């Protein structure tokens, strides 16, 4: 007798109720959205910093190599042997005094969005290029510190004002709140090194407190924070608290010395 092989017929899979399907789909979307948000956070807090800091270091190196490659400035004219006044004597003497040390007449503005100086703050271990302008895409998001175009240039009379990110994109001003009165701030350019000393820190003010960038800076929101005499100021600004842009943190410094290259 021939044995028959039984045939097993699979039953149809029971269809999930509509409510279960909706919950399952919602859970999948939530997991996917969470993964996307996590990647965005990693990109903003890690990858943008890595890219910007690397680019900023490269730019500092390029600037320093350009400055080192410049030909040395000519020395003073030798004194004439017959005792008569030379070309630089009397009315033609080289300028001296504070106006000469701080740059004299106004120099032309550097090209927009171009790095042209290096900011160094030893207390917080910062070395970062300074570019002309404060645009996000062209300057700040590249990890640079930006120079407000209508403020004084570093080393000159007035107020040289700089801005930088506190978080993401290199975050050069992440630890700006750690500066204390007397701390040294250095600005190097092709012409000279300018040494500033920190005078005051305004931990929080509104974004509209524009007088902190005035030639003689003061806070219109916090009147106790005020300078009254003309000088060569350096103002550093960034957002605060961390990871927000609700307020501004301001550090003021005053020029103490200039060392020509």
List the helices and strands and how they pair.
Layout: H1 18-69, H2 98-101, E1 115-121, E2 126-132, E3 145-147, E4 158-163, E5 184-188, E6 192-205, E7 232-240, E8 247-260
Parallel strand pairs: 2-3, 4-7
Antiparallel strand pairs: 1-2, 1-5, 3-4, 5-6, 6-8, 7-8
Summary of the model, kept short:
Helix content is 21%, strand content 25%.
Detailed description of the structure:
- The structure is a single chain.
- The chain is an alpha+beta fold.
- It has a domain of 176 residues: Sortase, Chain: A (Beta Barrel), CATH 2.40.260.10.
- The chain contains 2 helices and 8 strands, in the order H-H-E-E-E-E-E-E-E-E.
- An 8-stranded mixed beta barrel has the order 1-2-3-4-7-8-6-5.
- The longest helix is centred in the first third of the chain and has 52 residues.
- It starts with 17 loop residues before the first helix and ends with a strand.
- 27% of the residues are buried.
- About 10% of the residues have low confidence.
Assign an overall shape.
elongated
The CATH class name of the domain at 44-69 and 111-260 reads: Mainly Beta
The proportion of strand residues reads 15-25%
Cα-based radius of gyration, to the nearest Å: 30 Å
- In total, the number of strands is 8
Please name the CATH topology of the domain at 44-69 and 111-260: Sortase, Chain: A
Q: Which sheet architecture does the biggest sheet show?
A: 8 strands, mixed, barrel
| Overall average pLDDT | 83
The fourth-level CATH homologous superfamily of the domain at 44-69 and 111-260 is Sortase
- Order of SSEs, N→C? HHEEEEEEEE
Q: Number of DSSP helices?
A: 2
- Class by alpha and beta content: alpha+beta
Poorly predicted parts? 79-105
**CATH architectural category of the domain at 44-69 and 111-260:** Beta Barrel
> First CA to last CA: what distance?
110 Å
């Amino acid at each position: 007798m021939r044995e028959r092989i039984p045939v097993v017929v699979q039953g149809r899979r029971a269809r999930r109720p509509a409510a279960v399907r909706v919950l399952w789909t919602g859970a999948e979307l939530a997991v996917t959205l969470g993964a996307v948000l996590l990647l965005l956070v990693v990109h903003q807090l890690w990858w943008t910093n890595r890219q910007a800091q690397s680019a900023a270091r490269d730019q500092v190196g390029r600037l320093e190599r350009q400055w080192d490659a410049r030909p040395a400035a000519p020395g003073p004219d030798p004194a004439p042997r017959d005792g008569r006044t030379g070309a630089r004597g009397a009315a033609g003497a080289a300028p001296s005094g504070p106006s000469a040390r701080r740059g004299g007449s106004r120099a032309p503005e550097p090209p927009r969005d171009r790095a042209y100086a290096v900011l160094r703050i030893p207390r917080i271990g910062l070395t970062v290029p300074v570019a002309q302008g404060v645009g996000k895409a062209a300057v700040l998001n590249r990890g640079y510190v930006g120079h407000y175009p209508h403020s004084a240039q570093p080393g000159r009379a007035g107020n040289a004002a700089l801005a930088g990110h506190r978080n993401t994109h290199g975050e050069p001003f992440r630890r700006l709140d750690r500066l204390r009165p007397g701390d040294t701030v250095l600005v190097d350019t092709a012409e000279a090194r300018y040494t500033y000393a920190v005078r005051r820190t305004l931990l929080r003010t509104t974004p509209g407190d524009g007088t902190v960038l005035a030639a003689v800076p003061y806070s219109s929101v916090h009147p106790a924070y005020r300078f009254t005499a003309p000088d060569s100021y350096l103002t550093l600004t960034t957002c605060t608290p961390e990871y927000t842009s609700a307020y501004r943190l301001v550090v003021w410094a005053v020029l103490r010395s200039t060392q020509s290259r």
